[in-house]
Specification:
By secondary structure, the protein is mainly alpha-helical. 49% of the residues lie in helices and 3% in strands. The protein has 16 helices and six strands. Helix 3 packs parallel to helix 5, helix 4 crosses helix 6 and helix 9 runs antiparallel to helix 14. The longest helix is centred in the first third of the chain and has 25 residues.
Length: 407
């Protein structure tokens, strides 16, 4: 039986092994390939035609992501005024994700194998996420679904951070390995995945972050790049390196401080979209105060190429090289641990102290020395106070006890 995906990073020894592994290099190379693909062709992304250049499999994923936003309406936040972070209704949303992930992934794989148009594939993806397709989970699906489950936040901690974003990246890498981005991914299909799929993914995660108030996982506050994300800034900076920029004013990173640029181009350029979203969340606060790191980047780096290279180093150093982030990665057949983990993942016990002691430990129960033993309907010895009499019973023949002064 094939081993289920599991954690393999538990201490500094495992972390060092991951940092030196071919698995990490492969993931980082995939990020770089997606970034470089954004520098080619027409820089502008057209949100009115989000399926352009996507493979049918990616179009199916896009359709599912669109439908996931509607799930929030099915599980509205409960008593949002009671907690600053973490609305428990998110657990219901995440439960649906787990429940329908098999259909979503099956739809992606079938779109790879069948001769579907991107429009047909996107519609099938919507139906899968809407629960209208019957599927049966198998072992290969479980090797993939774990990454989708971890892509939108933690259902217990009620938080979201760059580790969850990275799980979505691993999910895309796995889909690439099974030919869902084409037999050999082209720069155009990678560019469409980086811009169109990630843009739609951001719409889902932002909806979850605001409606369910998911806590930023590992946020550095104002001294960090962003409370929740890193990769969209890298892809967005790469997009702005393209020779096809429609306006010269966009060629300098300083333009992000111009409100008109964010208003006019935020729908078409991923970096501007991220900055605009931050400004909307932190209205009334000057940009240099709410996001000093992003402000410094805009003022000190002269080209988008330097911004992109800095963002890639930041992602590697602050995400992939941070044990507190990647220790939550699960490894599988498609995203393999190339080292022997220092320990095995702990599992919850199947039996607890609630079980009868005799059945769990093979030991007889004990009683106080003055207790007079009786036998219950379950066969377990019972104890009673010394003044209790045997002939006073209630329904079920369980002896009753009472204080000596009771009449």
């Amino acid at each position: 039986m094939e081993e289920l995906p599991h954690r393999c990073i538990f201490n500094d020894v495992d972390m060092k092994a991951f940092m030196e592994s071919s698995t990490k290099k492969e993931l980082l190379s995939f990020v770089e390939a997606m970034g470089k693909s954004c520098t080619i062709g027409n820089a502008r992304f057209d949100p009115s035609s989000p399926l352009d250049d996507l493979t049918p499999s990616m179009a199916s994923l896009h359709g599912s992501l669109c439908q996931m936003i509607a799930w929030v309406d099915d599980f509205p936040p409960t008593n949002p005024e009671l907690a600053r972070f973490g609305n428990p209704a998110f657990r219901l949303w995440h439960g649906r994700l787990v429940e329908r992930s098999t259909a979503i992934i099956t739809s992606i794989l079938l779109a790879r194998d069948e001769n579907l148009s991107v429009e047909e594939a996107a519609q099938r993806g919507r139906l899968a996420a809407a629960g209208e397709l019957d599927t049966k989970e198998d072992a290969s699906i479980r090797q993939v679904s774990c990454y989708l489950h971890d892509s939108f936040g933690h259902a217990t901690r009620l938080d979201y951070g760059t580790g969850h974003e990275s799980s979505f990246l691993v999910f895309l890498l796995v889909l690439s390995k099974v030919k869902c981005l084409g037999e050999s991914p082209t720069p155009l299909s990678l560019r469409a995945t980086a811009l169109s799929i990630f843009s739609q993914y951001l719409q889902v995660t932002r909806k979850l972050q605001t409606d369910y108030r998911l806590e930023p996982a590992g946020s550095h506050g104002v001294w960090g790049l962003d409370d929740y994300h890193c990769l969209p800034f890298y892809f967005g900076a790469c997009q702005l390196q393209s020779a096809g920029l429609e306006s010269q004013e966009l060629s300098s990173p300083k333009c992000v401080t111009d409100e008109n640029v964010l208003k006019d181009y935020g729908d078409y350029y991923l970096y501007f979209s991220c900055i605009r979203y931050i400004r909307q969340l932190k209205q009334g606060v000057p940009f240099f105060e709410s996001s000093p790191m992003l402000f410094d980047i805009s003022q000190t780096l002269q080209t988008w190429d330097k911004v992109a290279r800095g963002m890639l180093r930041l992602y590697q150093g602050e995400v992939l090289d941070k044990r507190q982030v990647v220790q939550h990665f699960v490894f599988s057949r498609f995203f393999a641990a190339t080292w022997t983990p220092s320990q095995t993942e702990r599992t919850a016990p199947s039996e607890t102290f609630r079980n009868p002691v005799s059945s769990v430990l093979g030991m007889p129960p004990t009683r106080a020395p003055w207790a007079q033993a009786g036998v219950s309907a379950s066969g377990m010895p019972e104890t009673r106070a010394p003044w209790a009499t045997k002939n006073e019973t209630q329904e079920g023949d369980v002896p009753l006890t009472k204080a000596p002064w009771a009449k």
